[in-house]
Specification:
Elements (H helix, E strand, L loop, with lengths): L9 H12 L21 E5 L2 E4 L4 E4 L14 H11 L10 H11 L7 E5 L2 H16 L3 E6 L11 E2 L9 E2 L6 H4 L2 E5 L3 H10 L4 E6 L13 H13 L3 E5 L11 H6 L5 E5 L9 E5 L1 H4 L18 H14 L4 H22 L5 E5 L2 E5 L16 H14 L2 E2 L8 E2 L6 H21 L5
Parallel strand pairs: 3-15, 5-8, 5-9, 9-10, 10-11
Antiparallel strand pairs: 1-2, 2-3, 4-12, 6-7, 11-12, 13-14, 14-16
Helix pairs in contact: 2-10, 3-10, 6-7, 11-13, 12-13
Length: 441
């Protein structure tokens, strides 16, 4: 009997074709599904809390384009603003009133910055803030933390070496040793390492950069007193403190982690949410520091698409909605209830599984630990279990970012009904994974 060949899905066909055009078939590495195996989904459309792939299958989306879609997909007010602006043109390479309007909206509701500069991505925002810190302090070295991600610029693609305080190693080919030599890497949640770095490199450190809510390598929630320590030691040593809030900014509150912890860094980088789903980034700080950027100062930074009118219009529409009374409180309440129900069930069943959350950000972790504050505490072996969990969820209509190190997001469009239905699916899939591990009871 002739064996019938399995019919390929549209995503499989598209991915096969994409591999002819793009390295690995994708334009951003995590999309390739290498961490979880299988074929990446090609998404056709999104609406509210849902996405549909090219085969017409519907999923509850907890990736939300990695965070920026805080109102959900294709929010009517955001789409209306985009369409009205596109009708007037897509780019001018010249100032527009929309830049003023978005800047005023942000600064008048965020006491942690006085001036802002729009760019086109989070990576660009961080790269520019680092250059500004170096120009302002007249120092070259920067200090970052293992487990925090700040985009793919050369100075920041550096991982820890074997020592407590180390110049580390490049995490990518193509990054010169000379760049690595200017980047100090310390473990998270370790004040002694930071103190040692400032003693070893006295008067050489331009800035300390941290995700105040580390959310690119798990959700590594830090204590407020640790962030306060970083504020104090940078001030004492004439270095700048940079909060990378590309994920947490406008996500855990309108004033982000700075407002949540009531700590004022010298510079803050933003991205994602302020473009309503379109490419955008920004960095801001005090007038004294920001006025060192060209054309006023000698720190050069430019961009043809910086302050793009379509992105500005989308950002205005989205952030206006975020300023509605109770917006962030409702999001947090939904997320806490979502996490608690799953955690209670996991505890009752004695599963090594926990949902960590802050604001509307959450992280599924296969762990027996009640707290994970550094990347070294993450069990890398649990990623195989996450891969099984991911595909079980996917086959039952739940979409997460395709890596156990990635966080998830809840949007305004995730209604209580949608979340309750999702919880039931998640619990069933959790049972299924633990059955394969021989742990289900």
């Amino acid at each position: 009997m002739k064996k019938t060949q399995k019919k390929l899905t549209r995503s499989e066909v598209l991915f096969s074709k994409a591999k002819k055009y793009f390295p690995g078939g994708v334009n951003s590495p995590v999309r390739a599904f290498q961490s979880v195996g299988g074929t990446p989904l090609f998404i056709d459309k999104g609406k509210g809390a849902f996405i549909w792939d090219d085969d017409g299958r519907k999923y509850v989306d907890f990736c939300c384009s990695w965070g920026p879609l805080i109102l959900g997909h294709a929010n009517p007010k955001v789409i209306k603003a985009i369409k009205e602006t596109v009708d007037k043109g897509t780019s001018f390479g010249a100032p527009t009133a929309l830049e003023n309007k978005l800047a005023e909206l942000i600064i008048s509701n965020n006491s942690y910055i006085e001036k802002i500069r729009f760019v086109s991505s989070g990576t660009e925002a961080v790269m520019s803030a680092i250059r500004l810190a170096r120009g302002f302090t007249k120092r070259n070295k920067i200090l970052k933390f293992e487990g925090c991600y700040h985009g793919h610029s050369d100075s920041l693609l550096v991982k820890a070496g074997s020592g407590l305080v180390t110049f580390g190693n490049s995490s990518s080919e193509g990054v010169p040793d000379s760049f690595v030599a200017e980047t100090i890497v310390c473990p998270l949640n370790n004040p002694d390492a930071v103190k040692e770095a400032f003693l070893t490199f006295k008067n050489q450190i331009a800035c300390v950069i941290i995700e105040p809510v580390p959310a690119n390598n798990g959700l590594l929630l830090q204590e407020k007193n640790y962030l306060e320590f970083l504020r104090e030691i940078t001030s004492e040593n004439g270095s700048l403190l940079i909060f990378d809030e590309v994920i947490s900014g406008f996500r855990i509150g309108f004033t982000g982690a700075a407002g949540y912890y009531k700590i004022k860094p010298d510079l803050i980088t933003y991205g994602k949410i302020i473009g309503g789903g379109l490419p955008v980034g920004a960095y801001g700080g005090s007038q004294k520091i920001m006025d060192n950027i060209s054309p006023l100062g000698k720190v050069y930074q430019a961009g043809t698409l910086s302050g793009n009118p379509v992105a500005m219009a989308a950002g205005i529409a989205q952030l206006t909605e975020c300023l509605k009374p109770g917006f962030y409180k409702k999001l947090e309440e939904k997320t806490l209830a979502f996490a608690k129900m799953i955690n209670d069930y996991s505890k009752k069943k004695h599963y090594d599984f926990k949902v960590f959350s802050l604001g509307s950000i959450f992280w599924f972790a296969f762990t027996d630990s009640s707290s994970i504050k550094s990347s070294a505490e993450i069990n890398s072996g649990s990623m195989k279990t996450f891969a099984k969990f991911f595909h079980l969820l996917l086959s039952n209509g739940i979409y997460l970012g395709p890596s156990g190190y990635e966080v998830g997001f809840i949007s305004e469009a995730h209604s209580t009904e949608i979340l309750e239905k999702s919880q039931k699916i998640i619990l069933a899939c959790l049972d299924g994974v633990n059955e394969t591990l021989g742990k289900s009871k």
